[in-house]
């Protein structure tokens, strides 16, 4: 069994046609000035480490970085974490957070999941599941089953993008049957885009 780092997981998903939020890698302080020319503040900074699975709980995620000085302090803090190999830097973006994913279960084989995303996923438990394979009508039903569905109707075009991402996941599961678990959290959705901000993949 192999757990991909966030960078590996996102590179894999990008290669398979998913839209990933712009990101750069910083390994040391001198990298930050160059990244500043390419990504506007505010930033999110996340640790790259094979030793850390749940980055937020381990202090491996720092949000709302608004200056180069803050970025230097943040990178130094992350560098003290176990297995540090660098940091992913992304722009902060607005939208509604979703979790989508795949899980290989003993009872049903691969199932696909959609839910309210963010750091309170476990607490919220606002999720919908389907056993693969799925069709377009299944993805629509999954959306309508979410408790916060009424507040999503304002998304309009964004809802279509969520359905598109679910179908892409279903096709990915067919192409790579060795996927044991895949979590995209959050997928940030607004009227214009659905962008993967963080991903985790476990391969058999």
List how many beta strands DSSP finds. 11
- Helix and strand pattern: EHEHEEHEEEHEHHEEE
Straight-line N-to-C gap: 5 Å
Q: Could you describe the largest sheet, including whether it forms a barrel?
A: 7 strands, antiparallel
- Radius of gyration from the CA trace? 17 Å
Q: Strand portion, in percent? A: 25-35%
Class derived from helix and strand content: alpha+beta
Mean pLDDT: 94
What is the overall silhouette? globular
What is the CATH fold-level name of the largest domain?
A: D-amino Acid Aminotransferase, Chain A, domain 1
Helical residue percent? 25-40%
CATH H-level homologous superfamily name of the largest domain: ATP-grasp fold, B domain
Count of distinct structural domains: 2
Low-confidence stretches: none
The total count of helices amounts to 6
CATH architecture of the largest domain: 2-Layer Sandwich
CATH class of the largest domain: Alpha Beta
